[in-house]
Amino acid sequence: MKTVKIGLLGLGNIGTGTYKTLEMNREEIESTLNAKVDIVKILERDTERDRGIDVPVGKFTQDPDEIFTDPEIDIVIELLGGIEPATSFMLKAMENNKHVVTANKAAIAANYHKLMDTARDNGVAFRFEASVGGGIPILSTLTGPLRANKFEEVLGILNGTTNYILTMMTKEGLDYDTALKDAQAQGFAEADPTADVEGIDAANKLTILMALMFDKYVAPEDIPTTGITQITKEKIEEARANNCKIKLIARAKKLENGEIEYEVRPMHISETHPLANINKEFNAVFVKGNAVDDLMFYGKGAGPLPTGSAVLGDVIDIVKTVLK
Ligand code: HSE
Fold first, then answer.
1. Which of 6, 48, 70, 316 is deepest in the core (most CB within 10 A)?
2. pLDDT digit of tens for each residue in the chain (324 aa)?
3. Which fold has domain 140-300?
4. Do the annotations mark residue 190 as ligand-binding?
Protein backbone atom coordinates (compact mmCIF):
# COMPACT_ATOMS: atom_id res chain seq x y z
CA MET A 1 0.00 0.00 0.00
CA LYS A 2 1.45 3.37 -0.92
CA THR A 3 1.96 6.12 1.67
CA VAL A 4 0.94 9.75 1.07
CA LYS A 5 3.44 11.95 2.88
CA ILE A 6 2.40 15.28 4.27
CA GLY A 7 4.31 18.25 5.63
CA LEU A 8 2.30 20.31 8.11
CA LEU A 9 3.05 23.99 8.69
CA GLY A 10 1.76 24.92 12.14
CA LEU A 11 0.40 22.87 15.03
CA GLY A 12 -1.88 25.47 16.62
CA ASN A 13 -5.62 25.05 17.13
CA ILE A 14 -6.41 24.06 13.56
CA GLY A 15 -3.23 22.04 13.04
CA THR A 16 -4.06 20.09 16.19
CA GLY A 17 -7.67 19.65 15.05
CA THR A 18 -6.48 18.33 11.70
CA TYR A 19 -4.02 15.94 13.35
CA LYS A 20 -6.76 14.74 15.73
CA THR A 21 -9.24 14.24 12.90
CA LEU A 22 -6.71 12.11 11.04
CA GLU A 23 -5.98 10.01 14.15
CA MET A 24 -9.70 9.66 14.96
CA ASN A 25 -10.69 8.53 11.42
CA ARG A 26 -7.45 7.07 10.11
CA GLU A 27 -8.91 3.66 9.36
CA GLU A 28 -11.78 5.04 7.25
CA ILE A 29 -9.59 7.61 5.49
CA GLU A 30 -6.88 5.10 4.58
CA SER A 31 -9.36 2.51 3.44
CA THR A 32 -11.13 5.10 1.23
CA LEU A 33 -7.79 6.02 -0.30
CA ASN A 34 -6.27 2.60 -0.34
CA ALA A 35 -3.16 4.41 0.88
CA LYS A 36 -1.54 5.26 4.17
CA VAL A 37 -1.45 8.90 5.21
CA ASP A 38 1.54 10.08 7.18
CA ILE A 39 2.21 13.57 8.50
CA VAL A 40 5.96 13.17 8.33
CA LYS A 41 7.17 16.65 9.30
CA ILE A 42 5.63 19.49 11.27
CA LEU A 43 6.95 23.03 11.27
CA GLU A 44 6.30 24.22 14.83
CA ARG A 45 8.37 26.04 17.41
CA ASP A 46 6.36 24.96 20.45
CA THR A 47 7.16 21.27 20.79
CA GLU A 48 6.30 21.08 24.50
CA ARG A 49 2.63 22.16 24.67
CA ASP A 50 0.15 19.53 25.75
CA ARG A 51 -2.27 19.35 22.82
CA GLY A 52 -3.96 16.13 23.80
CA ILE A 53 -2.29 14.32 20.89
CA ASP A 54 0.72 12.09 20.73
CA VAL A 55 3.23 13.57 18.26
CA PRO A 56 6.60 11.82 17.98
CA VAL A 57 9.16 14.53 18.75
CA GLY A 58 11.20 13.57 15.66
CA LYS A 59 8.43 14.92 13.40
CA PHE A 60 9.02 18.50 14.55
CA THR A 61 11.26 20.79 12.58
CA GLN A 62 12.14 24.48 12.86
CA ASP A 63 13.30 24.68 9.26
CA PRO A 64 10.57 25.09 6.62
CA ASP A 65 13.01 24.14 3.83
CA GLU A 66 13.22 20.66 5.30
CA ILE A 67 9.60 20.32 4.22
CA PHE A 68 9.78 22.14 0.87
CA THR A 69 12.85 20.25 -0.35
CA ASP A 70 11.88 16.80 0.90
CA PRO A 71 11.23 14.89 -2.35
CA GLU A 72 9.05 12.39 -0.50
CA ILE A 73 6.48 14.97 0.64
CA ASP A 74 3.48 15.12 -1.71
CA ILE A 75 1.23 17.61 0.06
CA VAL A 76 1.92 20.63 2.26
CA ILE A 77 -0.84 21.70 4.66
CA GLU A 78 -0.45 25.33 5.70
CA LEU A 79 -2.14 26.15 9.00
CA LEU A 80 0.03 28.94 10.32
CA GLY A 81 -2.58 31.66 9.83
CA GLY A 82 -1.72 35.26 8.97
CA ILE A 83 -0.60 36.58 5.59
CA GLU A 84 3.13 36.15 6.03
CA PRO A 85 5.16 34.02 6.15
CA ALA A 86 2.24 31.75 5.23
CA THR A 87 1.90 33.07 1.65
CA SER A 88 5.63 32.82 0.91
CA PHE A 89 5.70 29.32 2.35
CA MET A 90 2.76 28.20 0.19
CA LEU A 91 4.39 29.67 -2.92
CA LYS A 92 7.65 27.96 -2.10
CA ALA A 93 5.90 24.64 -1.55
CA MET A 94 4.17 24.97 -4.95
CA GLU A 95 7.44 25.90 -6.66
CA ASN A 96 8.83 22.68 -5.21
CA ASN A 97 5.96 20.75 -6.81
CA LYS A 98 4.00 20.16 -3.62
CA HIS A 99 0.22 20.27 -3.64
CA VAL A 100 -1.01 22.78 -1.09
CA VAL A 101 -4.00 22.72 1.26
CA THR A 102 -4.76 25.64 3.54
CA ALA A 103 -7.42 27.11 5.84
CA ASN A 104 -5.82 30.53 5.66
CA LYS A 105 -8.42 32.98 4.38
CA ALA A 106 -6.31 36.06 5.16
CA ALA A 107 -3.45 34.81 2.96
CA ILE A 108 -5.76 33.70 0.13
CA ALA A 109 -7.77 36.91 0.18
CA ALA A 110 -4.62 39.05 0.14
CA ASN A 111 -2.80 37.04 -2.55
CA TYR A 112 -5.54 35.24 -4.46
CA HIS A 113 -4.17 35.60 -7.99
CA LYS A 114 -0.55 35.01 -7.04
CA LEU A 115 -1.43 31.75 -5.27
CA MET A 116 -3.79 30.51 -7.99
CA ASP A 117 -1.33 31.40 -10.78
CA THR A 118 1.64 29.82 -9.04
CA ALA A 119 -0.30 26.60 -8.45
CA ARG A 120 -1.34 26.52 -12.12
CA ASP A 121 2.16 27.34 -13.41
CA ASN A 122 3.65 24.53 -11.33
CA GLY A 123 0.93 22.02 -12.15
CA VAL A 124 -0.03 21.47 -8.51
CA ALA A 125 -3.36 21.46 -6.71
CA PHE A 126 -4.27 24.35 -4.40
CA ARG A 127 -7.27 23.65 -2.16
CA PHE A 128 -8.78 25.82 0.54
CA GLU A 129 -12.21 24.48 1.46
CA ALA A 130 -11.57 25.15 5.16
CA SER A 131 -10.99 28.85 4.55
CA VAL A 132 -14.70 29.71 4.28
CA GLY A 133 -17.41 28.29 6.53
CA GLY A 134 -15.13 25.93 8.49
CA GLY A 135 -16.65 22.48 8.15
CA ILE A 136 -19.31 23.54 5.59
CA PRO A 137 -18.33 22.26 2.12
CA ILE A 138 -19.29 25.48 0.37
CA LEU A 139 -16.34 26.21 -1.93
CA SER A 140 -16.13 22.81 -3.59
CA THR A 141 -19.92 22.91 -4.01
CA LEU A 142 -19.75 26.29 -5.75
CA THR A 143 -16.97 25.15 -8.05
CA GLY A 144 -18.40 21.63 -8.51
CA PRO A 145 -22.10 20.77 -8.46
CA LEU A 146 -23.18 24.43 -8.82
CA ARG A 147 -20.84 25.32 -11.65
CA ALA A 148 -23.63 25.37 -14.23
CA ASN A 149 -25.17 28.46 -12.60
CA LYS A 150 -24.72 32.16 -12.99
CA PHE A 151 -24.62 33.30 -9.40
CA GLU A 152 -26.79 36.21 -8.36
CA GLU A 153 -26.27 36.63 -4.63
CA VAL A 154 -24.51 35.35 -1.54
CA LEU A 155 -25.51 36.24 1.98
CA GLY A 156 -23.89 34.71 4.99
CA ILE A 157 -22.91 34.51 8.59
CA LEU A 158 -19.26 33.74 7.94
CA ASN A 159 -17.57 34.29 11.28
CA GLY A 160 -18.07 31.89 14.16
CA THR A 161 -16.46 34.06 16.83
CA THR A 162 -18.71 37.06 16.28
CA ASN A 163 -21.79 34.87 15.88
CA TYR A 164 -20.86 33.18 19.16
CA ILE A 165 -20.44 36.55 20.89
CA LEU A 166 -23.72 37.95 19.53
CA THR A 167 -25.56 34.73 20.45
CA MET A 168 -24.24 34.76 24.02
CA MET A 169 -25.03 38.46 24.42
CA THR A 170 -28.55 37.92 23.04
CA LYS A 171 -29.51 34.62 24.65
CA GLU A 172 -27.48 34.49 27.84
CA GLY A 173 -27.09 38.19 28.56
CA LEU A 174 -23.28 37.79 28.68
CA ASP A 175 -21.18 40.88 28.29
CA TYR A 176 -18.99 41.26 25.20
CA ASP A 177 -15.63 40.52 26.88
CA THR A 178 -16.79 37.34 28.63
CA ALA A 179 -18.33 36.02 25.41
CA LEU A 180 -15.13 36.81 23.47
CA LYS A 181 -12.93 35.06 26.05
CA ASP A 182 -15.21 32.02 25.86
CA ALA A 183 -14.95 31.94 22.04
CA GLN A 184 -11.16 32.22 22.26
CA ALA A 185 -10.96 29.39 24.81
CA GLN A 186 -12.88 27.13 22.44
CA GLY A 187 -10.48 27.79 19.59
CA PHE A 188 -12.89 29.73 17.36
CA ALA A 189 -11.13 33.08 17.35
CA GLU A 190 -8.12 34.15 15.33
CA ALA A 191 -4.79 34.49 17.20
CA ASP A 192 -5.57 38.20 17.26
CA PRO A 193 -9.37 38.43 17.54
CA THR A 194 -9.36 41.95 16.08
CA ALA A 195 -9.82 40.33 12.65
CA ASP A 196 -12.96 38.59 13.91
CA VAL A 197 -14.64 41.40 15.80
CA GLU A 198 -13.83 44.11 13.25
CA GLY A 199 -15.37 42.05 10.43
CA ILE A 200 -12.04 41.59 8.62
CA ASP A 201 -12.21 37.79 8.77
CA ALA A 202 -15.71 37.85 7.24
CA ALA A 203 -14.46 40.26 4.56
CA ASN A 204 -11.58 37.89 3.73
CA LYS A 205 -14.11 35.09 3.27
CA LEU A 206 -16.36 37.29 1.14
CA THR A 207 -13.38 38.07 -1.11
CA ILE A 208 -12.89 34.35 -1.68
CA LEU A 209 -16.59 33.72 -2.29
CA MET A 210 -16.82 36.58 -4.80
CA ALA A 211 -13.72 35.38 -6.64
CA LEU A 212 -15.20 31.91 -7.05
CA MET A 213 -18.80 32.92 -7.68
CA PHE A 214 -18.44 36.02 -9.81
CA ASP A 215 -14.88 35.59 -11.05
CA LYS A 216 -14.26 39.01 -9.54
CA TYR A 217 -11.45 39.75 -7.13
CA VAL A 218 -12.17 42.49 -4.61
CA ALA A 219 -9.43 43.04 -2.03
CA PRO A 220 -10.83 42.67 1.50
CA GLU A 221 -9.76 46.20 2.38
CA ASP A 222 -12.01 47.46 -0.44
CA ILE A 223 -15.10 45.79 1.02
CA PRO A 224 -17.07 48.26 3.17
CA THR A 225 -16.75 46.56 6.54
CA THR A 226 -18.16 47.22 10.01
CA GLY A 227 -17.53 44.82 12.88
CA ILE A 228 -19.40 44.19 16.11
CA THR A 229 -17.32 46.20 18.58
CA GLN A 230 -20.02 48.88 18.81
CA ILE A 231 -22.79 46.40 19.59
CA THR A 232 -24.03 46.98 23.12
CA LYS A 233 -26.69 45.29 25.23
CA GLU A 234 -28.89 48.30 24.52
CA LYS A 235 -28.62 47.78 20.75
CA ILE A 236 -29.46 44.11 21.18
CA GLU A 237 -32.53 45.05 23.26
CA GLU A 238 -33.55 47.64 20.69
CA ALA A 239 -33.42 44.94 17.98
CA ARG A 240 -35.37 42.54 20.20
CA ALA A 241 -38.10 45.17 20.68
CA ASN A 242 -38.48 45.13 16.89
CA ASN A 243 -38.60 41.30 16.79
CA CYS A 244 -35.10 41.19 15.32
CA LYS A 245 -31.68 39.83 16.17
CA ILE A 246 -28.38 41.45 15.31
CA LYS A 247 -26.16 39.31 13.07
CA LEU A 248 -22.88 40.10 11.33
CA ILE A 249 -23.74 39.59 7.67
CA ALA A 250 -21.46 39.38 4.65
CA ARG A 251 -23.30 40.05 1.43
CA ALA A 252 -22.58 40.31 -2.29
CA LYS A 253 -25.11 40.77 -5.05
CA LYS A 254 -24.79 40.96 -8.81
CA LEU A 255 -26.84 43.87 -10.13
CA GLU A 256 -28.74 44.07 -13.42
CA ASN A 257 -25.92 46.13 -14.94
CA GLY A 258 -23.38 43.42 -14.10
CA GLU A 259 -21.79 45.32 -11.23
CA ILE A 260 -21.46 43.68 -7.84
CA GLU A 261 -22.36 45.36 -4.58
CA TYR A 262 -20.78 43.99 -1.43
CA GLU A 263 -20.49 44.73 2.28
CA VAL A 264 -19.94 43.26 5.74
CA ARG A 265 -21.88 44.78 8.63
CA PRO A 266 -24.12 43.97 11.58
CA MET A 267 -27.73 43.86 10.41
CA HIS A 268 -31.13 43.58 12.06
CA ILE A 269 -32.52 40.19 11.01
CA SER A 270 -36.18 39.42 11.62
CA GLU A 271 -36.63 36.65 14.20
CA THR A 272 -38.62 34.69 11.63
CA HIS A 273 -35.74 34.70 9.10
CA PRO A 274 -33.65 31.47 9.05
CA LEU A 275 -30.43 33.47 9.56
CA ALA A 276 -31.75 34.75 12.91
CA ASN A 277 -31.60 31.22 14.26
CA ILE A 278 -28.00 30.46 13.35
CA ASN A 279 -26.37 30.42 16.76
CA LYS A 280 -22.99 30.18 18.46
CA GLU A 281 -20.10 29.16 16.19
CA PHE A 282 -22.42 27.96 13.44
CA ASN A 283 -22.23 29.65 10.05
CA ALA A 284 -24.80 29.80 7.29
CA VAL A 285 -24.39 30.70 3.65
CA PHE A 286 -27.30 31.53 1.34
CA VAL A 287 -26.54 31.30 -2.34
CA LYS A 288 -28.79 32.17 -5.25
CA GLY A 289 -27.98 30.72 -8.66
CA ASN A 290 -30.01 31.46 -11.81
CA ALA A 291 -30.75 27.77 -12.43
CA VAL A 292 -30.74 26.25 -8.96
CA ASP A 293 -32.47 29.22 -7.26
CA ASP A 294 -32.03 29.55 -3.47
CA LEU A 295 -29.76 27.27 -1.45
CA MET A 296 -28.69 27.44 2.16
CA PHE A 297 -25.67 25.76 3.74
CA TYR A 298 -25.37 25.43 7.49
CA GLY A 299 -22.77 24.01 9.85
CA LYS A 300 -19.93 24.70 12.24
CA GLY A 301 -17.94 27.55 10.80
CA ALA A 302 -15.12 27.52 13.31
CA GLY A 303 -13.34 25.18 15.67
CA PRO A 304 -10.49 22.69 15.38
CA LEU A 305 -12.38 19.53 14.37
CA PRO A 306 -14.88 21.01 11.85
CA THR A 307 -12.01 22.90 10.22
CA GLY A 308 -9.78 19.80 10.40
CA SER A 309 -12.56 17.90 8.64
CA ALA A 310 -12.47 20.34 5.71
CA VAL A 311 -8.67 20.36 5.55
CA LEU A 312 -8.51 16.58 5.40
CA GLY A 313 -11.36 16.50 2.87
CA ASP A 314 -9.12 18.52 0.55
CA VAL A 315 -6.21 16.17 1.20
CA ILE A 316 -8.37 13.16 0.40
CA ASP A 317 -9.62 14.81 -2.78
CA ILE A 318 -6.07 15.53 -3.96
CA VAL A 319 -5.00 11.97 -3.27
CA LYS A 320 -8.03 10.60 -5.11
CA THR A 321 -8.01 12.93 -8.11
CA VAL A 322 -4.42 14.08 -8.54
CA LEU A 323 -2.07 11.56 -6.92
CA LYS A 324 -4.12 8.53 -7.95
N1 HSE B 1 -11.92 33.00 13.53
C2 HSE B 1 -12.70 32.36 12.53
C3 HSE B 1 -14.16 32.40 12.95
C4 HSE B 1 -12.25 30.95 12.37
O5 HSE B 1 -14.42 32.70 14.13
O6 HSE B 1 -15.03 32.15 12.14
C7 HSE B 1 -12.87 30.20 11.24
O8 HSE B 1 -12.54 30.79 10.02
1. 6
2. 899 999 999 999 999 999 999 999 999 999 999 999 999 999 999 999 999 999 999 999 999 999 999 999 999 999 999 999 999 999 999 999 999 999 999 999 999 999 999 999 999 999 999 999 999 999 999 999 999 999 999 999 999 999 999 999 999 999 999 999 999 999 999 988 999 999 999 999 999 999 999 999 999 999 999 999 999 999 999 999 999 999 999 999 999 999 999 999 999 999 999 999 999 999 999 999 999 999 999 999 999 999 999 999 999 999 999 998
3. Dihydrodipicolinate Reductase; domain 2 (3.30.360)
4. yes
Catalytic residue among 41, 92, 98, 205: 205
Q: Which atom of ligand 1 is nearest to the CA of 161?
A: 5
User: Which atom of ligand 1 is least distant from the CA of 163?
Assistant: 5
**Residue 302 alpha carbon to ligand 1 centre in Å:** 5
- Residue 77: name the closest of 65, 90, 64 by CA: 90
Domain residue limits, the chain: 2-134+304-321, 140-300
d(CA 287, CA 298): 12
Q: How far apart are CA 279 and CA 180, in angstroms?
A: 15
Cα 103 to Cα 201: distance, rounded to the nearest angstrom? 12
Is 216 among the residues known to form the active site?
Answer: no
Please name which of 314, 81, 122 lies closest in space to residue 114, comparing C-alpha atoms. Answer: 122
Residue 183 CA: nearest ligand 1 atom is 5
> Which residues are within 8 A (CB) of 222 and not within 5 positions of it... i.e. 6 or more apart?
none
What interhelical angle do 112-121 and 200-214 show, nearest 10? 50
15 annotated as a binding-site residue: yes
Answer yes or no: is 289 a known binding residue: no
Residues near ligand 1 (Cβ within 6 A): 134, 159-161, 188-190, 196, 201, 301-302
SS3 114: helix
